[in-house]
Amino acid sequence: MVGLTLALTAGAVAPLASADGDPGSDVLVFQDLFVGSDAGLSVQQQLQLGGMLKAAARAGFPIRVAIIASPFDLGAVTGLWHEPRTYARFLGLELSLAYKQRLLVVMPNGFGFNWPGHPSQPAYRVLAGIPVRSSAVGLFAATETAVARLASAAAVKLPAASTAASSASPARGSPASPATASPRGQSTDNLVGILVLTFLVLLAVLLVLRRMSAGRIRARVRVLTRRATLLTQRRLAIPSGALLIAAIVVVAVIATRSNAPAVSDAQALGTNPYLDPGTVLSGQAPDFTLSDQFGQQVSLHDFRGKVVILAFNDSECTTMCPLMTTAMLQAKGMLGKAGSRVQLLGVDANPAAISLEDVWSYSELHGMLHSWHFLTGTLPELKQVWRKYAVEAAVEQGQITHTPALFVIDPQGRKAKVYITQMSYTAVPQLGQLLAREASSLLPNHPTVHSNLSYSRVQPTTPSQRAILPRAGGGTVRLGPGKSARLFLFFATWDQETSGLAGQLDALNR
Q1: Neighbouring C-alpha atoms within 13 Å toward the C-beta of 30
Q2: What are the extents of the domains in the chain?
Q3: Were both Cys, which of 3, 273, 415, 485 would link to 117 (CB 3.0–4.6 Å)?
Q4: E strand or H helix at 122
Q5: Contact 235, 497 (CB under 8 A)
């Protein structure tokens, strides 16, 4: 029975994981451990690590682990191979709506760590010096040691993973580890392992059945959850002659002075869940040639001598992408005259909307028509660029999902940093300042950034608080508790292009 279970698990679960666009996020939504199909870890070793992670969770130290042994284990994002820190940020975003705790990535060249709302540098100091080898034994030992040290740094002592498997390295510490102390304990672990494996087999069967009926492998909770922030909305026709009221659009950012000690930029960045401080990259940025919104051929190498801020945008996006492009514009403005040495580029990341009309329409709607080059091309041309920059872009059940990546490229054409953008109106000026400061650091003489915002999370105004805000067209609006019930609706100005919401509200008010 055990042998049959192991065979079914190895034969059914691993192919499903490796065939998907991002295998790690698919598996880690359900489980604590993802082991790439090329890692070579035995089922026994995987069970041992899984048991260690469950013990960590029981001890109040939840952590999930992705072991990536080859580019193939990354699915569609092979460009993040040998970039464990960048992949950790990417994977953390993929899982962010379902999982917000610690995440460890293990690659043959090092570790990546992500914990939303917490700085990563303390973890990297703990992980420094742990050797990682590409063999199964090396990956197993590195993962075991890394989890144990991270837990120890949080004052949590974990039992070492069992050393029963012949390929595992000897356990550190006492001669008799908890996993090998008694046959009874082993029997209990084996029973738990059988139950876990049986569950995985049933899960695999369900996934296979879903694949057969839907004709796809993407049975992913990520697709259901991430759409809240990454999926775009299709344009809806506005009835001709409909009267659109002057929508009051309020983005309230209330800055308050505090008597608390000043927080450094690094500390604030590390604890703001809506800001990615950026991941340092290296190497030449892959070149490409595409057409901009005016139909002109544009190549990345055309802008040598300038800092390039490159975004991958859905041309029909009404959620995250407009926030990203707004931050790009603000970044350039914060540099004053030096902004002329910064070039803004966008690459269309919507496989279903790649015409010149699509990129023109987006640029015009968001005030970017003459402020950047929004590039498109044939679908094969775009797919090649997406692949080079490890950007996932796909149509799933009629909706668009893509990696919200923002690259900064130095004047010599080298990748400097990548930012995975978040969904927050209040963080847009902060992201703009981050980009402006990074651009300034790459330009000669480091021009002044005309902005001094804190990177601390902007505290929201609750319904119990009173606030007076400016109104479009003049006057003010008072928010807060009152004698009569009132409805306050917050939505973006560009929504009037995709929805008849304003007209419907006007009709209800009559």
Answers
A1: 16
A2: 2-224, 265-442
A3: 273
A4: helix 121-127
A5: yes
Looking at residue 160, what DSSP letter applies? P
DSSP helix/strand/coil, 427: coil
Among 81, 83, 105, residue whose Cα is nearest residue 281:
83
Write the DSSP symbol of residue 316: T
Q: Check whether 210 has a pLDDT greater than 80.
A: no
CB–CB of 447/335 below 8 Å?
A: yes
- Encoded amino acid at 391, one letter: V
pLDDT at 471: 81
Confidence grade of residue 493 (pLDDT, cut at 50, 70, 90): low
Strand, helix or coil for residue 371 = coil
SS (H, E, C) 191-258: HHHHHHHHHHHHHHHHHHHHHHHHCCCCCCHHHHHHHHHHCCCCCCCCCCCCCCCCCCCCCCCCCCCC
| Alpha-carbon distance values, 226 to 92, 230, 281, 318, 348 (Å) | 12, 6, 26, 15, 20
Integer CA distances (angstroms), 279 to 96, 113, 418, 428, in order: 18, 12, 5, 18
Residue 20 burial by CB count (10 A; 0-12/13-18/19+): exposed, middle or buried?
buried
Q: Is 230 exposed, middle or buried (0-12, 13-18, 19+ CB in 10 A)?
A: buried
Question: CA-CA distance, 95 to 75, in Å (whole number)?
Answer: 16
Q: Which residues of 46-75 are buried (b: 16+ CB within 10 A; e: fewer)?
A: bbbbbbbbebbeeeebbbbbbbbbbeebbb
Spatial CA neighbour of 55 closest among 147, 166, 139: 147
On whether the 265-442 domain is CATH 3.40.30.10, my answer is yes
Total Cβ atoms within 10 A of residue 259: 4
Q: What is the pLDDT of residues 385-435, one digit of tens each?
A: 999 998 888 877 677 778 888 999 999 999 999 998 877 888 999 999 999
How confident is residue 112, by pLDDT bands cut at 50, 70 and 90?
A: very high
